[in-house]
C-alpha cells in the first residue's frame, strides 16, 4: 500500500512538471508594466509616458501603469527602478538629468547610471525655452540679461529640479552671459511652469514639451530657445545664441531604461515597440506640436551617447564650480 502511494505521488509530480515549466516560461508580458516617471505629473517625462503608453500597451496586450515618483531631481524614481527586479515589468522614463547630469553633479546619488540600468531607447530631444509670465516687462532675452547684470541676485528662475537640463542650462547661461540669477528647483516641470505663470518666479527654463501649450494659450511669453538652432514649429522664436550669447546650445533628451540584467530579448522588444510608436503619423504630429524631435535610438547607441553626455556635463560642472543645492 505504501509503495502504491509513493508511485501515485511520483506520477502526480511528473504530470504536474510540464505545467509548472509552462508557468515558469510564460511569455512576457503577462501582467501590467509599471512605467516610473521620476518627476511630478504634467512635466515632459510624464506627458511622453502618457502619450506613448497606450500605443505600446495595445501592441503588447498589457496596461502600462504610470507611477510618478518625484523627488531629488529625478534621483528617487531612478533609484527605485535601479533596484527593481530585472524582469521587464518596471521601466524608467529616464532623462538627461537622471542619466547624465545628476551622476556627475552629485557623486553620492544611490545608483550608478552606467551600471545599474539597461538602456532601451531614446524617445527624442527637445529644446528648453526661456519663458516669462504674460505680464512680464521682459520682451527679449537681452532685456532679461541686461536687467540681471544691473541687478545681481534680483531675478529668480525655476527649473524641474536640481540637476535637470533646465537647471544646468541656467547655470551655463549665468556663466556665459556674466550675470547672477537665483535658481529655484521644483519637483518637476508641472509645478515649475505653474509658478512662472503665477509670477512666483521671474522666469523659467523648461522644455518646449512642458511649455508649448501655455505659450500658444498666451499665459507664457517665450523669449528664446536654448538649442543651437531654431526649432520646428517655433521658427519665430530666436535662439539664445543668436540673441547675443554666442555658442550657447543646450537640449534636453528623454529616454527609457530598464533595470540592469533585464533579458536582452525584452529590451529589444521594448525598443522595437517604442520606435514603432514614434514613427506613427499621429504621434509624429503630436511631437511636432510639442517641439520634440523623435529618435528611436537603439540600446547600444544610447549607451554610447550617454557616456559622451556625462563627459560633457562633468566639464560644465567642474568649470562652473557647480554644487548640489
Automatic annotation (TrEMBL):
Q: Where are the transmembrane segments?
A: none
SUPFAM superfamilies for this protein? Periplasmic binding protein-like II
- Alphabetized UniProt keyword annotations: Signal
Matching InterPro entries, A to Z? BUG (IPR005064), Bug_dom1 (IPR042100)
Give the signal peptide range: 1-24
One Pfam family linked to the record: TctC
Q: PANTHER family from the entry? A: BLR1237 PROTEIN, TRICARBOXYLATE-BINDING PROTEIN
Q: Which family does it belong to?
A: Belongs to the UPF0065 (bug) family.
Name it.
Answer: Tripartite tricarboxylate transporter substrate binding protein
Amino acid at each position: 500500500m505504501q509503495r502504491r502511494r509513493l508511485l501515485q505521488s511520483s506520477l502526480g509530480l511528473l504530470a504536474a512538471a510540464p505545467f509548472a515549466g509552462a508557468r515558469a516560461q510564460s511569455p512576457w508580458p503577462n501582467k501590467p508594466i509599471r512605467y516610473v516617471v521620476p518627476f511630478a505629473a504634467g512635466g515632459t517625462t510624464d506627458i511622453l509616458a502618457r502619450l506613448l503608453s497606450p500605443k505600446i500597451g495595445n501592441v503588447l496586450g498589457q496596461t502600462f501603469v504610470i507611477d510618478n515618483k518625484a523627488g531629488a531631481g529625478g534621483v528617487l524614481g531612478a533609484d527605485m527602478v535601479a533596484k527593481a527586479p530585472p524582469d521587464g515589468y518596471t521601466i524608467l522614463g529616464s532623462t538627461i538629468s537622471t542619466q547624465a547630469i545628476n551622476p556627475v553633479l552629485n557623486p553620492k546619488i544611490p545608483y550608478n547610471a552606467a551600471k545599474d540600468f539597461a538602456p532601451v531607447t531614446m524617445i527624442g530631444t527637445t529644446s528648453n525655452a526661456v519663458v516669462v509670465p504674460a505680464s512680464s516687462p521682459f520682451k527679449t532675452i537681452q532685456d532679461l540679461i541686461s536687467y540681471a547684470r544691473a541687478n545681481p541676485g534680483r531675478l529668480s528662475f525655476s527649473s524641474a529640479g536640481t540637476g535637470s537640463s533646465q537647471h544646468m542650462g541656467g547655470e551655463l547661461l549665468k556663466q556665459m552671459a556674466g550675470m547672477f540669477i537665483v535658481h529655484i528647483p521644483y519637483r518637476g516641470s508641472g509645478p515649475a511652469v505653474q509658478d512662472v505663470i503665477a509670477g512666483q518666479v521671474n522666469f523659467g527654463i523648461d522644455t518646449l514639451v512642458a511649455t508649448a501649450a501655455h505659450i500658444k494659450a498666451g499665459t507664457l511669453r517665450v523669449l528664446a530657445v536654448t538649442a543651437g538652432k531654431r526649432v520646428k514649429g517655433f521658427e519665430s522664436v530666436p535662439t539664445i545664441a543668436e540673441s547675443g550669447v554666442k555658442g550657447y546650445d543646450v537640449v534636453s533628451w528623454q529616454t527609457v531604461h530598464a533595470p540592469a540584467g533585464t533579458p536582452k530579448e525584452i529590451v529589444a522588444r521594448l525598443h522595437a515597440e517604442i520606435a514603432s510608436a514614434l514613427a506613427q503619423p499621429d504621434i509624429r504630429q503630436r511631437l511636432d506640436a510639442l517641439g520634440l524631435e523623435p529618435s528611436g535610438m537603439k540600446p547600444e547607441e544610447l549607451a554610447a551617447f550617454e557616456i559622451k553626455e556625462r563627459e560633457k556635463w562633468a566639464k560644465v560642472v567642474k568649470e562652473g564650480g557647480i554644487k548640489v543645492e
